[in-house]
Design a protein that fits this description.
single chain; 65 residues; three-stranded antiparallel sheet; mainly beta
Length: 65
């Protein structure tokens, strides 16, 4: 169990995902710390897709979680 509050609970490295006509993420890397995290953006910007990728409900083209 993660007990260090500075240590991320989720680390994303080199995430790549998109469709033929549109690449949503290309090399996205981020650390998500414990607590509340906000995902925001315009309609159609990829928020729901990002959450599905992070939850494992959608497969990424590349990268690690």
């Amino acid at each position: 169990m993660n007990t260090d509050p500075e240590e991320p609970i989720l680390r994303v490295q080199g995430l790549r995902f998109g469709w033929t006509e549109q690449r949503l993420f290309n090399g996205l890397s981020l650390d998500i710390a414990p607590g509340v995290t906000l995902v925001q953006g315009d309609d159609g910007s990829g928020k729901s897709t990002l959450l599905r990728l992070l939850a494992g409900a959608q497969n990424a083209d590349a990268g690690t979680l």
